[in-house]
Amino acid sequence: MIALPDFPWDRLLPYQDLARAHPDGIVDLSVGTPVDPVPPVVRTALAEAADSPGYPQTYGTPRLREAAAGWLRRRHGATVDPADILPTIGSKELVAWLPTLLGVGPGERVVLPELAYPTYDVGARIAGAEPYAADGLLALGPERVPLVWVNSPSNPTGKVLPAEHLRKVVAWARERGAIVASDECYIELGWEEQPISILHPDVCGGSQEGLLAVHSLSKRSNLAGYRAGFVAGDSSLVKRLLEVRKHAGMIMPAPVQAAMAVALDDDRHAQEQRERYARRRAVLRPALERAGWRIEHSTAGLYLWATNGTNCWDQVRALAEKGILVAPGDFYGDAGRSHIRVAITATDERVDAAVMRLQ
Ligand SMILES: Cc1ncc(COP(=O)(O)O)c(C=O)c1O
């Protein structure tokens, strides 16, 4: 049996019950699941591809891989050959299985951020490797590691890693033969800072050697329910992932491939969604500040990383008593024990209700 941590969200259930008891109902700012409609162009593409009796391609259709390459070029200044793109069934499965798919194993350490999305840790454990939380690579000394995760903008903190920082990570990793996996699922949600992809020439120097960028349409296009993501980068690594995924049946359904291609080609719906989140962020942030919370980082992404100096679970309780459910910072590492993570993903009506209750 693989020893995995308790599923963190189960620990939040009593507070969910407390928040639900509010006479005007719960405002759920915990998980960060999209609540706005799937864009009509994407739904149409899904429906038009509904008659899909045959097996889809693990590699993804050329149409899908070209759309992903086009989006990376157009929106993020990264030139990637469509051959070096591979669809994934959402990005969480890739995060959880990447160490295993790459052959990382016992006796090896996978580096991940100190405050991080819990699945990097889980993925290392599934592979039988050891998760190692460190923001600075110097702490590793001369040790060689197979895989380093970076996540910018960060879940949970909303911090953006500047190009210079990412360049240093890439140089460090290349010197030692480590792979850098960059989880960029919030890259389109820069507010006060513009996130940059690991595959941008200013970071990677024009070569994708040793690099993988992990992308998701869950947040950009409200496609969390479709399970739509992709990984792009180093040609030989993508080929290796493709080989194993073909054997293992890790295949994105054909209608989702068709829908995802259309979503990647269309920037208009993504801009509209950005504007929705911008508005919610603009009202929630000052409301939390007026109620005694300080917001740290949070210059990009879908979350406000907040603290009032007390233990995170006391903060969770105080807000649950107002009917507002948020995530405790210690879900993301010990360093988060005095913080909460507040998602900006509720409807305008629910966000306005939270603002009222914070007054
Ligand atoms: C940092 C990070 N990576 C990956 C994911 C997984 O997203 P999905 O599987 O929906 O693509 C999430 C989801 O919230 C996340 O916060």
From TrEMBL:
Its EC number is 2.6.1.-. Its cofactor is pyridoxal 5'-phosphate. Keywords: Aminotransferase, Transferase. CDD domains: AAT_like. It is an enzyme of class 2 (transferase). PROSITE patterns: AA_TRANSFER_CLASS_1. Residues 26-358 form the Aminotransferase class I/classII large domain. One of its GO terms (molecular function) is pyridoxal phosphate binding. It comes from the Bacteria. The keyword rRNA-binding does not apply. PANTHER family: AMINO ACID AMINOTRANSFERASE, L-GLUTAMINE--4-(METHYLSULFANYL)-2-OXOBUTANOATE AMINOTRANSFERASE. Belongs to the class-I pyridoxal-phosphate-dependent aminotransferase family. This is Aminotransferase. It comes from Sphaerimonospora thailandensis.
